[in-house]
Amino acid sequence: MLEQQLVNGFTLGLIYALIAVGYTMVYGVIELINFAHGEIYMLGAFLTLSFISMGLPLPLAVVLAMLAAAAIGVLLDIVAYRPLREAPRLAALITAIGMSIFLQNLAMIIWGSRPLPFPRQALPAFFSEPALTFSDVTISWMQMLIYAVAVVLMVGLNLVITKTRVGTAMRALAQNQTAAALMGINVNRVITFTFALGSAMGAMAGIMVSMYYNTMYPTMGYLAGVKAFAAAVLGGIGSVPGAMLGGVVLGIAETLGAGYLSSPYRDGVAYAVMILVIIFRPSGLLGRAVTEKA
């Protein structure tokens, strides 16, 4: 049972990690907690459903949904957050919560408030069969797909951040936004790219969750977003590797809590792990302590 719970927890943790990366990238660049990010995750699932309903094949529907989610993330930045760049942080935080509620209600208007199934006919028939079976552990093809997609996206994100000019600009903004602007970096363009990249990854997480659990609903982004934010804090807010590690740790803790205690306690166990880590290491698992200058 332990081995199977670890496999299931690792699967869930990778999904949390993909969402948490969006939180931590935006926070790292502009120190904003984008609470509407969970709704981008939700929209990824519903947009994929809509594109499949139009007769598009699954791979094309997924790509279009990620591009649409990236565009929505950019629009959020331009409309809701950019005008508040110089405002107190509380104003941006309240705006983020308001945009979250707005997107939830918009989804209810467009797709209805009832849960909808993922169109299973769009998936290959063998996805319902086990991919690997050893000892008492079974790994499905759906889980294998989640592993592959998550690893590819995370490796790709790491390459973008460390090996490209825009990644260098993102790291410069995270260090000192004023100095970066004085060095000729287009601050707004880099922030917009950060929103687009994080939103695309969040949408991919929503797509995989809807495929994995065969359901989607307009409020699915709320709890997933809160947990992903907890994962980002657990790993060290502002640290992309920390967000990835925090997501995996949180997913495993939640699954073990559900398996060995009781399903209703799964959320409590996950947050208890986060609280303990923060008590003994306030900067998170991979975060760095920052001293505020007077």
TrEMBL record:
One of its GO terms (cellular component) is plasma membrane. Pfam families: BPD_transp_2 (PF02653). It is found in: Cell membrane. It comes from Solidesulfovibrio aerotolerans. InterPro entries: ABC_transp_permease (IPR001851), BCAA_transport_permease (IPR052157). Keywords: Amino-acid transport, Cell inner membrane, Cell membrane, Membrane, Transmembrane, Transmembrane helix, Transport. GO terms for biological process: D-alanine transmembrane transport; L-alanine transport; L-isoleucine import across plasma membrane. The keyword Cell inner membrane applies. The keyword Transferase does not apply. It is a multi-pass membrane protein. This is Branched-chain amino acid ABC transporter permease. The chain crosses the membrane at residues 6-28, 62-81, 90-111, 141-161, 190-213, 269-290. Belongs to the binding-protein-dependent transport system permease family. LivHM subfamily.
